[in-house]
UniProtKB/TrEMBL annotation:
Name recorded for this polypeptide: NADP-dependent oxidoreductase domain-containing protein
Any one of the GO BP annotations: secondary metabolite biosynthetic process
SUPFAM superfamilies: NAD(P)-linked oxidoreductase
Source species: Rhododendron simsii
Signal sequence segment: none
Site note Lowers pKa of active site Tyr, residues: K93
Residues the record marks as active site: Y63 (proton donor)
A single MF term (Gene Ontology): oxidoreductase activity, acting on the CH-OH group of donors, NAD or NADP as acceptor
Keywords: Oxidoreductase
Binding residues annotated for substrate, in chain numbering: H126
InterPro entries cross-referenced by the UniProt entry: AKR, AKR4A/B, Aldo/ket_reductase_CS, NAD(P)_OxRdtase_dom_sf, NADP_OxRdtase_dom
Length: 329
C-alpha cells in the first residue's frame, strides 16, 4: 500500500517543450559539507523527506550525493512510499570540470548511472565557468585550472541531452542577466530554470524580472543562508527584522524566509537532515505574510551570502566578483 504524504506541495509548470513537466515549489537539497560525508545520514534523510511529502530532490555530481539519492529512491519504491519514479522531480548539475562540449553527455550518463534512473527531470550547468577536466570534482580547486566557458557549444551539448530524452528539462545555475543574455543569443531551447542564491537578504529583483520576461523559472538555493557550508553565512538567521516578524507571527525564522521566497513566485530548495526541521520547513503553505511584513522584508539591506571567490583569479575568465556576478554584491 502506498503511503499518503503529510503535505501536498504546490507545482509550477516548466518550459514549453513537448515533454516539459511541473516542478514542486518546495524542494529538498542533498548537499552536505564537506561533500561526500555522512552517506547513511543523507540516505535516511531523503527517505524521511519522501515520507513527509517532499517530491523535488536536488543533487549534483560535485555533491557526491547522487548515489545516496538513487539508493533512497529505490528503497522508497520497495517500501511503497511512492508508486513510481515519475512521482518525483529529480534535478542534478553538470560540474565545471565537465563544462566542455564533449564531456556533457558522458557526465549526464554517469549521473544517471549513479542515480539508477533512466532520465532526469532537470539538468543544470552548475556555474558559468569551466575548469580543466583533470581537476575532477575536488572543491576548492586550483585557480590555475579556471577556463572560460564555451557558452554556445556547451549549451548545444545540453540541448542534445534533452533531445535524447535523458533529461526532460535543461537549465542553468548561478547565471547573471548578462550571462543569460549571452546564452540566449544562440540557444535553440531556452533554459527552463536558473537556480540561484536567493533569500530576504539577497532578493535578486533584477534577475527575477529578467527571468520572468524570458519565461525562465527561478529556483532559490540557500534561502536560510546555508550556515556551516563553504557557500553559506549566518546573516539570514541573525537578521533582526526576520526575528521580529517570526516572533509576532508565531512562526520560526526559517518558515518566514521560506514563505517569503515562495510568495515571490519561485521554487525554493531547503536542506535539513533534522526531521523536526524538515516538518517545519514544509509548513509554509497554509498562511501568508501581511503586506506590512512583506514591505519590511523588502527594505532589508541587500548583501550576497556567497561571493564565489574560488572562481575569481587574475589568470582566469573572471578577474573580480563583480565580473563573475555582473553586479556589486
Amino acid at each position: 500500500m502506498v503511503s499518503i504524504p503529510e503535505i501536498q506541495i504546490p507545482l509550477s509548470v516548466l518550459g514549453s517543450t513537448a515533454n516539459s513537466n511541473s516542478i514542486p515549489l518546495l524542494g529538498f537539497g542533498t548537499a552536505s559539507w564537506p561533500f561526500g560525508e555522512s552517506e547513511e545520514i543523507v540516505k535516511g534523510s531523503i527517505l524521511t523527506a519522501i515520507k513527509l511529502g517532499y517530491r523535488h530532490f536536488d543533487t549534483a555530481s560535485v555533491y557526491q550525493s547522487e548515489q545516496c539519492l538513487g539508493e533512497a529512491i529505490s528503497r522508497a519504491l520497495e517500501l511503497g512510499l511512492i508508486e513510481s519514479r515519475s512521482e518525483l522531480f529529480v534535478t542534478s548539475k553538470l560540474w565545471c570540470s565537465d563544462v566542455h562540449p564533449h564531456r556533457v553527455l558522458p557526465a549526464l550518463q554517469d549521473t544517471l548511472q549513479k542515480l539508477g534512473l533512466e532520465y532526469l527531470d532537470l539538468y543544470l550547468i552548475h556555474f558559468p565557468v569551466s575548469v580543466k577536466p583533470a581537476a575532477g570534482y575536488v572543491v576548492p580547486f586550483n585557480q590555475s585550472d579556471l577556463l572560460p566557458m564555451d557558452f554556445k557549444s556547451v549549451w548545444e551539448a545540453m540541448e542534445e541531452c534533452h533531445k535524447l530524452g535523458l533529461t526532460k528539462n535543461i537549465g542553468v545555475s548561478n547565471f547573471s542577466v548578462k550571462k543569460l543574455q549571452q546564452l540566449l543569443l544562440t540557444a535553440k531551447i531556452p533554459p527552463a530554470v536558473n537556480q540561484v542564491e536567493m533569500s530576504p537578504l539577497w532578493q535578486q529583483k533584477k534577475l527575477r524580472k529578467f527571468c520572468e520576461e524570458k519565461g525562465i523559472h527561478v529556483t532559490a538555493y540557500s534561502p536560510l543562508g546555508a550556515k556551516g557550508t563553504l557557500w553559506g553565512t549566518n546573516q539570514v538567521m541573525e537578521c533582526e527584522i526576520l526575528k521580529e516578524i517570526a516572533k509576532a507571527k508565531g512562526k520560526t525564522l526559517a518558515q518566514v524566509c521560506l514563505r517569503w521566497v515562495y510568495e515571490q513566485g519561485v521554487s525554493v530548495l531547503v536542506k535539513s537532515f533534522n526531521e523536526e526541521r524538515m516538518r517545519e520547513n514544509l509548513n509554509i503553505f497554509g498562511w501568508k505574510l501581511s503586506s506590512e511584513e512583506s514591505q519590511k522584508i523588502d527594505q532589508i539591506p541587500q548583501r550576497k551570502g556567497y561571493p564565489g571567490l574560488e572562481f575569481v583569479s587574475d589568470g582566469g575568465p573572471f578577474k573580480s566578483v563583480e565580473e563573475l556576478w555582473d553586479e556589486e554584491i
